[in-house]
Design a protein that fits this description.
With about 130 residues, the chain is α+β, with helices and mostly antiparallel strands. The protein has helices spanning about 100-110, 125-130; strands at about 10, 15-20, 25-35, 35-40, 50-55, 70-80, 85-95. It has a six-stranded antiparallel barrel. The protein starts with 9 loop residues before the first strand and ends in a 5-residue tail after the last helix.
Length: about 130
């Protein structure tokens, strides 16, 4: 699939539940998010271009004054996951307001999976070998 995403996705360390707000049906779990949209891991496929009233459960966080966020999402794409019993659904957020954008920013900032290596002190065995500390 050709990459058309304008904003980099941020993989999250939490898997918030995502519901169809209209029907109450669990759509799946949030896997990644950007200011423009999200990917949901779902049991069921969804047709592209479908508009869905979304409810995304929020993790407990003192910065949130609510326990969920309501958005409108458009299914941009849907494809089988590496595990063929699941589907990955790409959602585009349709015109989120300022409050919704603020919540999305907190979700990304607080729950992004960070890949930086910890700043561990140099091990004695490396010093003994004369390895560079840089």
């Amino acid at each position: 699939m050709d990459e058309r995403r304008k904003m980099p996705r941020k993989y999250l360390i939490i898997y918030s539940r995502v519901f169809n707000r209209g029907s109450g049906q669990l759509l799946g779990y949030l896997a990644d998010m950007s200011k423009a949209g999200a990917m949901v891991i779902s049991d069921d496929a969804m047709p592209a271009e479908t508009l869905i009233p979304l409810r995304i459960d929020l993790p407990p966080n003192q910065q949130f004054t609510v326990d969920h966020i309501d958005l409108i999402g458009r299914v941009a794409w849907c494809q089988p996951d590496l595990d063929p019993s699941f589907y990955n659904i790409g959602l585009e957020f349709i015109e989120p307001n300022e409050e919704q954008n603020a919540i999305i920013q907190v979700m990304i900032a607080e729950y992004e999976f960070r890949r930086e290596l910890p700043d561990y002190p140099t091990s004695p065995s490396m010093l003994d070998r004369g390895d560079s500390i840089n």
